[in-house]
Amino acid sequence: MSRTALTFLPRALSAAFRPARVASNHHRVPLRAKTIASSASASSPSNPNPNHEGVTSIAMELKSANKAHGGEVRKYTHASSSTGTDMTFSVYVPPAAALSPVPVIYYLSGLTCTDDNATQKGGAFKACADAGVMMVFPDTSPRGAGVAGEDDAYDLGTGAGFYVDATSAPWSANYKMYSYVTKELPALIEANLPAARGLKSITGHSMGGHGALTIAFKNPTEYAAVSAFAPIVNPSAVPWGKKAFETYLGSAEAGKDHDACELLKKRGAAFPEFADVLVDQGLDDQFLTEQLKPENLEAVAKEVGQKVSVRRHAGFDHSYFFISSFMEDHVKFHAKALASKAQAMADAVDVTADPALLAEFAKTAGKDIECNAAVAWGPKQPLTNEVVIVAPPKAGEVRVKVISNALCHTDIYTLDGHDPEGLFPCILGHEAGAIVESVGPGVTSVKPGDHVIPCYTPQCNAPACIFCASPKTNLCPTIRSTQGAGVMPDGTSRFTAKKDGTVINHFMGCSTFSEYSVIAEISAAKINPRMPLNKACLFGCGVSTGLGAVWNTCKVEAGASVAVFGLGAVGLAVVQAAKMAGAGRIIGVDLNEDKFAIASRLGCTDVVCPNDHEGIPIQSVIVGMTKWGVDYSFDCTGNVEVMRSALECAHRGWGESCVIGVAASGKEIATRPFQLVTGRVWKGTAFGGWKSRSAVPKLVERSLAGELPVDHYVTHAIDAKGGDVAGATNEAIHALHGGDCLRAVVTYHK
Q: What is the dihedral of CA 59, 63, 69, 70, to 10 degrees?
């Protein structure tokens, strides 16, 4: 379990959680007329994408920002080089974008529309928030270009730019909507907003459906997917398209380069097919037979082998009532395709086991290994560097070469003598990234060279294990008794001190304060080798625990209010998960105000320091801030007084409070029964409820995809120079006690 303790623990009881000064940014969201000229590496209110080095930024003026489903709907204007006019676009930035760049769906609107129509009527925001995708809504035409006749017809000029680059005067000077949508706007988005480079798709309605299809068919490698609502699929053959193409391009014939049906006919064998093209069409659409003609697209697609799924819906017309009814389907369609493309991009990076490393492992397999380890000889004693002998793995065991180890409060908790199961001498450590060196008889799930995270909560998956079979728990008891006794499943240790032969105890089934360790196969979570092990180690305990407490144990929903007590690594993981879940208000509580900046960056809308108010219980302050309390509260301190405060600030009638931190031996929790009678629920979590070998690899994949960043947790990186594992680990312990450390990661091997 994650025995987290705040760095201010000695003061926590004396402070008794006095009420806090509330430093809130909860009501700062609407921004007005703020000019942004952010470089790719800068930090600005526009959340520029730090991954896009070398992208020239363009000044954008933020006209408005409004909260929606945990994210923001923003409207920007900027001077366009494509159109020579000021252009306007709206964008929905989902809550996930606060942590890392997200994929983008471009939505192209139809005749007479602006960016406002779809943002106000399209109903996309909740689906985008749930899927973790951004949606961009460009305007349909230049505004104020001053072209004669541009305002005379609803289906031309400012009423309909048709997403082409005009070649005929006087339109050719300004009507460059194809270049704007395909080049200028994506570059602008990627330079100034948290948009994942190379991960975009496109959809649209009516004229915008025409634009989406033709843009995707002309640039098939640029877009992960394409869909459309009631699109004009064959515009060079229908009145709307003929008029537009004759005006902008000189002839309907020239418009065939912007015609989905014609583009498919000319596709050729080299055209990369989309897995599917989703089209929704209302059967009561007044433009169905004369202008839209979806059957034309179906016929050509069948000829060339491009899958197109046209869904026809009785009772629906051409309006936004129709679009909003099926918008969620389209967002999910695009999100799935974008996720597949992200995985394909990741798979394109070939990472294989180092042949030299495998040769090294072949020499040591089946033999004792001598290596350096940090040994704890007794409680409250500094770790000492010792040469230890690590025996080969026995049946069902795995020997691993530990690359990096993150220091967790649990290790300090045991070293300080607070753990009733703490046995000495022992090798502590349980939050590591490692490589399999050799395996014992019967091991099939991992092999030498595999990258693994040792997990203190095992997962045996045996048919007879009711715990592994149940979705209600992750507490597999298969090796619990021997793990608690400091030995391997057969009742013996794999560690001895070289200097005198002393048998050294294991710790939490991991013992990763050693250059080599032996763990049970059922404790080894095999992960993608593309994940650097100095980051992968974070998923071995604290970060996973905080994330799972929110997503698994409490299942925090969008719009919920949350209070997090203790803003260490576990507490910040709770904040991060709550933000990603779309929580509407997140209150962070800590005595160390230095942690407030990162807490706010990760999602806290309010931060509370108990030292700023005397005599009022902190739970009363939070209830006062929220009227009835928060929907969910989390204790990440291990302090039983704080646990009570967390429960009692939970919402009357339905509030849930989750205990994450583990208290010192002998401590008990207390509250008045009335707190529970009036609807509050007190619960706890171990490793966030994750079934380790199944879940940890998936968390790593989400991190690799950019959805779940963890770099911000590593505040101290330390090398065990010359094999001095103990010296480096003692340095990490000192850092952890310093108050400005979230995770200190010690690297043993490069």
A: 60
pLDDT (tens digit per residue) in 566-587: 999 999 999 999 999 999 999 9
Amino acid identity for residue 263 in this structure: L
Q: 309 an active-site residue?
A: no
Q: Which domains does the chain have, with CATH numbers?
A: 61-348 (3.40.50.1820), 355-540+710-748 (3.90.180.10), 543-686 (3.40.50.720)
Q: Is the dihedral of CA 444, 448, 453, 456 positive or negative?
A: positive
Bridge-based pairing of strands 34-36 and 60-68 is: antiparallel
Kindly report the pTM of this predicted structure: 0.65
Rounded Cα gap, residues 541 and 708, in angstroms: 15
Told to judge if 418 belongs to the known catalytic residues of this protein, a careful annotator would answer no
Judged against a pLDDT cut of 90, whether residue 48 lies above it is answered with no
Residues above pLDDT 90, as percent of the chain:
80
Active-site annotation holds for 318: yes
Residue in 285, 419, 590, 635 annotated catalytic: 285
Contact 47, 34 (CB under 8 A): no
Task: Catalytic residue, from 78, 205, 318, 430: name it.
Answer: 318
Cα separation of 192 and 584, whole Å? Answer: 25
Is residue 451 pLDDT above 80, yes or no?
Answer: yes
Question: 718 is written with which tokens?
Answer: 């330390």
* 343, 196 Cβ separation under 8 angstroms: no
Around Cβ 666, how many Cβ atoms within 10 Å? 7
